[in-house]
Design a protein that fits this description.
Elements lengths: L15 H12 L8 H6 L3 E5 L6 H12 L3 E3 H10 L3 H8 L1 H12 L8 E3 L8 H8 L2 E7 L2 H10 L14 H15 L2 E4 L6 H17 L3 E3 L11 H7 L8 E3 L8 H7 L4 H12 L7 H11 L13 E5 L2 E5 L10 H4 L2 H13 L6 E7 L3 H13 L5 E8 L5 H8 L6 E6 L3 H12 L2 H11 L1 E4 L6 H20 L9 E6 L4 H11 L4 E8 L4 H8 L1 E3 L21 H8 L4 H14 L1 E3 L2 H8 L2 E5 L2 H15 L5 H13 L6 E5 L7 H7 L11 H11 L7 H6 L8 E3 L3 H15 L2
Helix pairs in contact: 3-10, 5-6, 6-7, 11-16, 13-14, 13-21, 21-22, 27-28
Length: 729
């Protein structure tokens, strides 16, 4: 099979050559490699856009020398020869109102190949012309601070640019023009304040080389898979074919201090875009599509705070990153308002090839993931051919968590209470994913494929990185710290996904001194991080007031172990084989040393959790949910005075009112109270944070899911099959 060279851009809808490449990679139907060399040596152009004064012309010349390519300045080398007059003369002849149209017509005649092309600051304002030239290569947006641009223009004695009317300041016209650059770029090059043209050119060359050498994704239990596995494949599959978890085959991108500085005073959507577009290859998902998804996911209709995930001072040097303002009152909303859009875009990509399969999202939840998945997929993927089945331990979650899931209405949703603990639910889901006969039967009979939406899925984990970066930037914005100062981060941890996202934020350059892993009485992670021994032989799962971290098998620990074993999939596979067969494994002293270079760990029993909720409420008026209380208790022991501690507030306290209210003496037992009464009693407290609007509204919704299931693998499969059959009837 002959594969076309990689010389077209991936936009939605994506162009034919790249669709072929994605199709080949996705279905693994060929051993032809993703030939980055063809892209590097092809006739595609490297196109530079940006404001006047952003340094495009100088950077282009430097880049041409670095890449051994001819350089084209659109003004000097195309427009003026085409018009047979200078740009200034053309502007004087036709006037400002007609100039953009004339410039666009001329740009439509450009047909250069294999060049470094410096476009004018106004070229992107002509949509048709910009689309034409963008087809010829990759568009790099030199995103320079406006303050820097204005200083340069002043030095060049430029006081007016095309389109700037009387009474319009340079700041205003630059802000106006930015919207056009945002429409057309493939890659944003964020420039530090005072950055030299040589440095900017190096950034572009490095980014271009990363394109060429990008290895896509790899399983934590295998080696790099060829051909390249793209982002959409990881989103649709959820779990790798060998039972491992997908992660990036290359290194995490690293931000400079100046690049973080550019995000300090931005809103959450802008921060999310700036971070995620560095983590997702733009030929896997275009920057424009990503921008649309981010804007749709994070707004006031879904999140009760304008800041999306605000940081609040708690006491002393402790701050709470409030991750619970989304529609289900849990940190899981941060990812699951965005991930369903990744999923439907991936499905759309498949369907352009005639692949008409539907998908079933199969989720095991310890309480919060289930509600967030149900809400996210019903809100952002309704009617897309995606069904959702959530398995939860019937006696292992809070009364409000259960009510929230049971009231999620939709023909494509099913919630099943399993007479078991969370570990059984999670192990069953993994087993179903690896059950080839079951998968084949679903595919053959119902054209249905399985996927995951919990933190096993790379597309679910990525958005969680964003709020950890944003939390740090908010501390800078609040002047609690200066940019570059270190902080500690403390996270209540069960499945290791949230703290792994914080680890990735650290790898991207956020100056985190210590990642504090906080466990409840199910403290297997605490013991492992302190000793290097992961031992389940004498453990049974304990039910606590913090059910979302009542977990013994921490799935995302596998990704950390993969990275710390220098991406050795065979070593990780052996560890998890030992866990399956012997219920334990141990890592070497060197790996333990690496772990303890970033992580410290502690645990909190039920009495300490209760005391922390009560004392914090009395001292500050702030009411913690039991999971955040676990983190606060551990942070009290580890947090010194040398730097702030940012505690992840993972759920709104009202979601666990049946546990929290007895803790603070508001009632002796919640057994006889309805969810409405629990929320009503919570409202009477007038505590911080304010009552969650969606949790309050949820209490009035009727229960629609009453299905239960015994803790038997074949029985669970039967329930899943019956639901798929119903969906297709």
């Amino acid at each position: 099979m002959m594969v076309m060279p990689l010389l077209t851009k991936f936009l939605v809808p994506c162009r034919a050559a790249w669709r072929v490449r994605l199709h080949v990679c996705r279905h693994l139907q060929t051993d032809v490699e993703w030939k980055h060399g063809e892209f590097a040596n092809s006739n595609t152009n490297v196109l530079l856009i940006g404001s006047p004064g952003s340094g495009k012309t100088t950077v282009a010349r430097l880049l041409g020398a670095m890449m051994d390519r001819p350089v084209v300045d659109i003004d000097d080398d195309h427009l003026e020869p085409y018009w047979k007059m200078t740009v200034a003369d053309k502007l004087s002849k036709v006037g400002g109102d007609r100039f953009l149209e004339e410039e666009g017509k001329a740009l439509l005649k450009f047909d250069g190949k294999g060049k470094i092309v410096s476009l004018t600051g106004s070229n992107p304002m002509h949509t048709e012309a910009m689309r034409h030239i963008a087809k010829s290569g990759t568009v790099f947006f030199i995103d320079c601070p406006n303050k820097e641009i204005i200083n340069r223009l002043n030095m060049m004695k430029v006081n007016r640019i095309v389109g700037q009317g009387d009474g319009t300041s340079m700041e205003e016209i630059l802000k106006y023009r930015r919207q056009f650059y945002e429409k057309h770029y493939d890659v944003r090059i964020v420039c530090d304040e005072g950055e030299t043209p040589e440095s900017v050119a190096n950034k572009i060359k490095t980014k271009f080389d990363n394109f060429v050498n990008d290895k896509g994704y790899v399983s934590t239990r295998g080696s790099v898979i060829k051909p390249r596995i793209p982002f959409f494949h990881t989103v649709l599959k959820g779990l790798a074919e060998d039972g491992g978890l997908y992660t990036m085959a290359g290194d995490m991108p690293r931000f400079t201090k100046g690049q973080f500085d550019r995000l300090v005073h931005c809103g959450y959507r802008r921060r999310a875009l700036g971070i995620l577009e560095q983590l997702i290859h733009p030929y896997d998902l275009s920057s424009k599509s990503l921008q649309n998804f981010v804007n749709e996911a994070y707004h006031r209709e879904s999140f009760a705070s304008d800041d999306i995930f605000p940081v609040r001072h708690l006491a002393g040097n402790q701050y709470i990153l409030e991750l619970f303002h989304g529609p289900t009152g849990s940190f899981k909303d941060g990812a699951l308002q965005l991930m369903p859009m990744f999923f439907t875009a991936a499905m759309d990509s498949e369907r352009r090839f005639g692949d008409r399969n539907n998908y079933l999202i199969l989720v095991a939840t310890s309480g919060d993931t289930g509600g967030a998945v149900l809400d996210g997929f019903s809100r952002h993927a309704g009617g897309s051919g995606v069904g959702v089945v959530v398995l939860y331990p019937s006696r292992g979650i809070s009364q409000l968590q259960q009510h929230q899931m049971a009231t999620m209405d939709g023909d494509n949703l099913r919630v099943i209470g399993v007479d078991s603990d969370f570990d059984f639910c999670q192990t069953t889901v993994k087993r179903i994913f690896q059950d080839e006969d079951f998968a084949d039967a679903l595919q053959r009979q119902y054209s249905c494929k399985l996927s995951a939406a919990n933190s096993l899925n790379w597309g679910r984990l990525l958005p969680q990185i964003v709020y950890h970066v944003s939390g740090y930037l908010d501390l800078v914005k609040m002047r609690v710290i200066s940019l570059g100062d270190e902080i500690d981060v403390c996270i209540p941890t069960g499945n290791f996904g949230n703290i792994l996202a914080a680890y990735y934020a650290k790898e991207m350059g956020v100056p985190v001194r210590r990642l504090i892993c906080a466990s409840n009485s199910n403290n297997v992670l605490t013991d492992f991080l302190n000793t290097g021994n992961y031992d389940l032989t004498s453990r049974t799962l304990l039910r606590t007031a913090s059910p979302a971290i009542d977990i013994l098998k921490s799935s995302n620990l596998e990704r950390l172990l993969y990275h710390l074993h220098d991406n050795n999939g065979a070593a990780v596979s052996q560890l998890y084989s030992d866990l399956d067969k012997q219920r334990k494994f141990s890592v070497s002293e060197e790996i333990l040393r690496r772990i303890q270079g970033s992580f410290v760990a502690g645990s909190c029993d039920e009495q300490a959790c209760q005391q922390t909720v009560l004392k914090t409420y009395k001292d500050t008026g702030y009411l913690l949910d039991p999971h955040t209380a676990v983190a606060k208790s551990v942070a009290d022991r580890f947090g010194g005075t040398s730097c702030p501690v940012l505690i992840s507030g993972t759920a709104h306290y009202a979601k666990f009112a049946d546990r929290v209210l007895p803790f603070i003496g508001q009632m002796t037992s919640s057994d006889d109270l309805s969810v409405s009464e629990l929320i009503g009693n919570s409202l009477d407290l007038k505590a911080r944070p304010a009552m969650h609007r969606d949790l309050e509204n949820m209490t009035r919704k009727p229960v629609v899911h009453k299905e239960t299931c015994s803790a038997d693998y074949e029985n669970v499969k039967r329930h899943v099959r019956n639901f798929v059959e119903k969906l297709n009837s």
